[in-house]
User: Fold this.
Amino acid sequence: MLDSALSVFKMGRNLARLMEGLGVTLEISCLAVALSIVLGIPIGLLMAGQRPIVKRILRLYLEFIRVMPILVLLFLFYYSLSKIWNINLSAMAVSILVFTLWGAAEMGDLVRAAVTSLPRHQWDSGRALGLTETQVSFYVIIPQAVRRLLPGVINLATRMIKTTPFVFFINLPDLVKVGQQIVEVAGFRNPLASVWVYGFIFIIYFAICYPISLLSRYLERRWPS
Amino acid sequence: MLSGQVVLKIKDLVKNYDQRAVLKGLTLTVSQGEVLVVIGPSGCGKSTLLRCLNGLEPVNGGQIIFEGQYLTDPQTNWSRIRQRVGMVFQNYELFPHLTALENILLGPIKVQNKSREEALAKAEYWLNRVDLWDRRHSFPRQLSGGQKQRVAIVRALAMDPEIMLFDEVTASLDPEMVREVLDVITNLAQEGLTMLIVTHEMAFARAVADRIIFLDDGGIVEDSTPDVFFQNPATERARRFLNIFHYDDIHKPNGSLNLAKNNL
Ligand SMILES: Nc1ncnc2c1ncn2[C@@H]1O[C@H](COP(=O)(O)OP(=O)(O)OP(=O)(O)O)[C@@H](O)[C@H]1O
Ligand SMILES: [Mg+2]
Assistant:
């Protein structure tokens, strides 16, 4: 049994290739999640703001992203963009772009919800104590907004990580794609290859996402809203 | 107890919300150690008056003079003033992410730049007085309404205010918790703290007040002692207002308002 498992990973550069695939998955995930958070904060603040036209446009953007399957967006940017405008983006660039478009929209909505759900009275209470506007933001508003935001952001991050295998369809060799290639080759000689390879991938995704989900549950318990 | 020295002077105060006048030229003088209870029908501008006094609402006309300083001057440093004017709101607006103690220490440490030890000593003194020292590490969500409101009062007192503003601090409380909060305020009144209290608890108003201010339609309709106001109000409007409470008494014999009738 163990021999059959080890043989799959020892064959050729299989383990190294899987690690490279993991690298691709992590690169897309980390960059897209980080960019989404950075872009989502101003988007969310604008969504919570006073300008109706800006709000309408951002709302439309959010709805568009939500109804559109990620796969369609990936195809659209990878295959169609080059045809229309002669823009040639690498599969990696398209992946990060599409995942960021999605993440930033969702992050914006989370920020909007966190900001608008804070009662105005919290401002009054802080000001009545003599805190300046900056101090109220810093000690009262931001800590509460971040607490409300964190579980949602963590949930979004796990969803984004779990969705990265879609890049498979634009031929980016992420973890799942590499795994599939290995199974195709090794499967001739080793009927259990798929079990070992996909089991390995399963464990890796679990090892990435489970701690994040634990963290989120821990935070929700520590900071109930 | 009254030293007679004027602490707060309000002259022809005008406050509008979107063109509509809410305070229409209100004039009032408060002396050191006086306890003023402000009563009046819903929407007559009681909260607005208190909020103007510590600058939470900008005013549209008239003057507010606090310890000789014109608060209606646009240059007013409100952070300084608010350290000396304590305010407690109806909905015990504690900061939910901080413990009771941290709520209380925030102002003294961040606004008044006191050392943690000094602020802690004061917090301990006040929390002991309201019987909540052993709950100091509780978060607001772990406290009852009455306890939260007592913490909110301590939070304001920890700044050593010269005057306290209470805006219907028992209005959101279950009846059995009203008493513990009113006792704290009565205690402060006996010590000679200057206070402006907005309340619908008539028995409490009568017991605690040096003066009753009856506000209606954006102005002061009556300004008299509790005995005169409750037994023999000078105006028809005040009489009608007080009658509302009698009416409530008859129909809600178990409500907290029947306290009012017994003492009237
Ligand atoms: N932020 C605001 N914007 C517009 N109108 C307001 C605002 N705050 C209060 N008002 C109006 O001003 C009037 C006075 O309100 P205020 O809250 O001072 O009344 P109140 O005497 O405290 O009433 P209550 O006993 O119900 O608390 C009301 O008609 C109210 O609708
Ligand atoms: Mg009010």
In short: Residues 2-222 of chain A form a domain with the MetI-like fold fold (CATH 1.10.3720.10). The two ends of chain A are 50 Å apart (CA to CA).
